[in-house]
Amino acid sequence: MKTSILLAITCVFALSCTHDAIIQPINADSTGIVVVNPIPTVKSDTVCFNSEVLPLFTTYCSSTGCHNTITRSKGIVLTSYATIMNGIRPGLPNSSKYYKEIGNGMPPPSSPQLTTVQLEQIKKWINQGAKNTNCVNSCDTTKFTFSSPIQALITNNCSGCHGVKPGSGNVYLGDYASAKAFITANKVRFLNAINHSASLVPSKRMPPSNKMVDCQIVQFTKWINNGYPQ
Hints:
Number of strands: 2
Largest sheet: 2 strands, antiparallel
Radius of gyration: 23 Å
Helix content: 40-55%
Number of helices: 10
Oligomer: single chain
């Protein structure tokens, strides 16, 4: 009798602890980059420094010729985690010099300004400890319309120089029609620029300070090659 009960309990636990293996599909993108198709999960709340915060500093603060390694305006450089952390206090956005100055005279009034969403992103990163989080392929490469995510990629990576007419070098990418028109006329040049092609001098690689992560370049490439879906 006792043996039968023990066997029954063992079977119940064995069945309750059995799970189907979760297999995440992997495909090779046409660019040669291996892209992992994400399974439906809750998106991580962690802000990635390299793909979500660094582009904001380099685009709006250093790419305009103010706080890069060449001009070093007021002795400040904002092109890397180490230099940005000189004015950031982890967990304390209101005590972080570089956060408090954004929107209060910096960037200069005549330059493109960060949006409320972008400012909140930086604040969130600081509140999370201002860590040097590095996300390589943290985006969904099955999405590549202008409304999502291309417009945000342009805003975060290009608008510091090309978000207000006429734009640096007479290149304006501030709306769908303008971005489509310029890239259509300069497709090879644009793709070489965002891929940081070795055939280009560093100043012609975009963004100049830091290359976008691979999956964002894949999204841009798919948007272009699929006819600029809006």
